[in-house]
Backbone:
């Protein structure tokens, strides 16, 4: 859409045009609330530009259920690859009249004396009564400082820059990190016949299938994905916990690092240092592998218990038996043996452009279900914003609907009491306020 942004006022400004921002727009459109969506690149840019060629979702297609736009294909139990995800978002964008302005970056957010907000952008200043920050959690690729000590001749990429094995120079490759990205990139290189060295961290794993179904389906039936963050005694720890590694590649299967090792991949513990052209690793490989397996088997325990409680018949399945054990744990690797390093070391947040005091001492936005202590300012698309699915296709819509209700009803500051930075509130009714038009 074409807008003259400088001087524009809207009831709501949504910053970010990914699945979170588009979901927010759809809910506001349904409620008749005037708004504009600002997107620095193009809608769905993260999926286009920060995913490798063979990337696919680790959750089944049936979990793709953005507001008003459930998965439209004919393979609900399959896993969308990168280009299909981009097409899904493009089709979603076309399914309703999104008031989006692409190629515009929000550079500063401030409060307006007397109420509302001012958003400075690369195309002028806008004002709004409400702002929804839907920029997601993965803004700044993180690479450890020890990367600076590697030889200049060693090619280094963050996982967000990795595309395919052919992108890297010939030779052996070190992948650092075993979250979802690290494990899947290591597999991509391994299947391409590259000699891979993998620094194994503490991320847990999960089986793809168990007792006749995808584990995601069992957990969904068990209500796991609808469980609110407030139900956990260690909410902060849960919110920042690493995701379980598994893959949807080629129809979906387990990622078993032990099997990779048996096939020739060299596993190490955590990377701890680089000195005199030698990489040093912690002696925690066995512990990390055992811990990942224990989490996977614990999830199976919970499924077994659920099946018993619910009197559900499902085919029995033998439990996992480790296919490889490290006889010893290699502690060093000479940098001359590798031609490239892929840093699968995660992302950080960059909210420096937000000049509103809603952040804790670690720079995380203090909120309850996306509602901050500053009336009218909201966040959407954060991991575990309310449930496991909050930052994903399966749960971001419910969060967007909740925020739309708050916006339509009018943010009631008296509903929220902030004690030592921790929000406590009385929630509004879950049913929609009657839609009204806000121009």
Residues:
């Amino acid at each position: 859409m074409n807008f003259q942004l400088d001087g524009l006022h809207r009831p709501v400004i949504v910053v970010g045009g990914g699945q979170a921002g588009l979901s927010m727009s759809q809910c506001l459109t349904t409620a008749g609330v005037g708004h504009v969506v600002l997107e620095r690149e193009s809608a769905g840019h993260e999926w286009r530009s920060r995913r490798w060629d063979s990337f696919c979702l680790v959750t089944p297609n049936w979990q793709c259920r953005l507001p008003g736009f459930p998965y439209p294909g004919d393979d609900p139990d399959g896993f969308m690859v990168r280009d299909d995800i981009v097409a899904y978002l493009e089709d979603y964008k076309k399914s309703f009249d999104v008031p989006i302005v692409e190629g515009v970056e929000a550079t500063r957010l401030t409060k307006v004396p007397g109420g509302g907000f001012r958003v400075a952008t690369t195309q002028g200043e806008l004002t709004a009564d409400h702002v929804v920050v839907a920029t997601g959690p993965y803004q700044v690729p993180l690479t450890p400082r020890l990367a600076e000590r590697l030889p200049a001749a060693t090619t280094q990429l963050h996982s967000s820059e990795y595309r395919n094995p052919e992108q890297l120079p010939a030779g052996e490759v070190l992948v650092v990190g075993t979250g979802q990205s690290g494990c899947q990139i290591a597999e991509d290189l391994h299947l391409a016949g590259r000699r891979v060295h993998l620094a194994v961290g503490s991320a847990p794993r999960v089986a793809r299938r168990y007792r006749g179904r995808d584990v995601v389906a069992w957990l969904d039936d068990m209500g796991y994905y609808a469980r609110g963050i407030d139900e956990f005694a260690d909410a902060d720890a849960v919110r920042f916990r690493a995701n379980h590694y598994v893959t949807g590649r080629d129809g979906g299967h387990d990622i078993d690092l032990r099997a990779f090792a048996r096939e020739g991949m060299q596993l190490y513990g955590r990377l701890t240092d680089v000195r005199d052209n030698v990489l040093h690793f912690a002696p925690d490989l066995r512990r990390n592998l055992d811990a990942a397996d224990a989490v996977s088997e614990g999830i199976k325990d919970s499924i077994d218990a659920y099946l018993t409680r619910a009197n559900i018949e499902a085919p029995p399945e033998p439990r996992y038996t480790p296919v490889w054990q490290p006889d010893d744990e290699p502690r060093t690797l000479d940098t001359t043996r590798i031609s490239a390093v892929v840093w699968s070391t995660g992302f950080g947040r960059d909210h420096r452009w937000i000049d509103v005091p809603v952040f804790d001492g670690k720079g995380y936005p203090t909120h309850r279900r996306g509602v901050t202590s500053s009336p009218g300012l909201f966040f959407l698309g954060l991991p575990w914003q309310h449930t496991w699915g909050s930052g994903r296709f399966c749960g971001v819509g419910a969060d967007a609907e909740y925020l739309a209700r708050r916006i339509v009803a009018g943010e009631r500051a008296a509903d929220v009491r902030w004690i030592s930075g921790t929000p406590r509130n009385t929630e509004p009714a879950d049913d929609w306020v009657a839609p009204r038009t806000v121009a």
In short: The chain has a mean pLDDT of 91.
